[in-house]
Amino acid sequence: PEMLEFDYMVYNFTENREEIVYTFLMTNRSIYSRLTMTPAGYLQQSTWFPTEEEASWVSPNEQCDTYRICGPYGYCDMITSPICNCIKGFTPRYSEAWKLKDGASGCVRKTPVSCNGKDEFVQLKNMKLPDTTSAVVDKRIGLAECRERCLNDCNCTAFANINIQDRGSGCVVWTRELLDI
Asked: 177 with 68: CB under 8 angstroms?
């Protein structure tokens, strides 16, 4: 969304079940542009003009949009200082690093999971969902059944609705560390 449209560049974004592809075509052959992904996970586009000027943009442009900035079980909040915080029931893995505003090491549980049916989940509102790389999705069940499924699995770390419209529907379950909240 932060990309501007220019008359010398045509963009194409495709998203379907098989692929997510972004392409661009330069319509003016005297202007050059390249899109790169940095090792830190930033998308950067640099454009060179005939006048030898260079223009570029980088995404993400907000700290909280940086992948894993607050590590496992940490969440990013631009309003707080430092921006990294631990989910309730967790504490910084390395408190000295957090004091230096480096939350990349994330957080650890204050108490171990008992897995005897007495564990509880903390509700987080107005948050971006964690990385879903290893999440499991079931579109057929609602939040109540999703919660039960998660409570009965000692590896379950979180659950949520897939669709939050109306009263919500579907179920997504995480069974590994929660990242990128």
From this structure: no
Contact 44, 36 (CB under 8 A): yes
State the pairing for strand pair 136-138/107-109: unpaired
Are 122 and 89 contacting, i.e. CB atoms less than 8 angstroms apart? yes
Residue 57 pLDDT > 90: no
From first CA to last CA, the distance across the chain in angstroms is 20
Q: Which domain holds residue 22?
A: 9-59
Q: Is residue 2 part of a domain?
A: no
Residue 56 vs residues 47, 61, 131: alpha-carbon distances, Å: 6, 12, 28
Residue 157 has pLDDT above 90, yes or no: yes
Residues 68 and 55 in one domain: no
141 secondary structure, DSSP code: S
CA 148 to chain centroid, in Å, comes to: 25
Reported as a single tens digit per residue, the pLDDT across 60-96 is 777 888 888 899 999 999 898 889 999 999 999 998 9
Q: What is the mean pLDDT of the chain?
A: 86
Based on the domain organization, do 55 and 70 belong to the same domain?
no
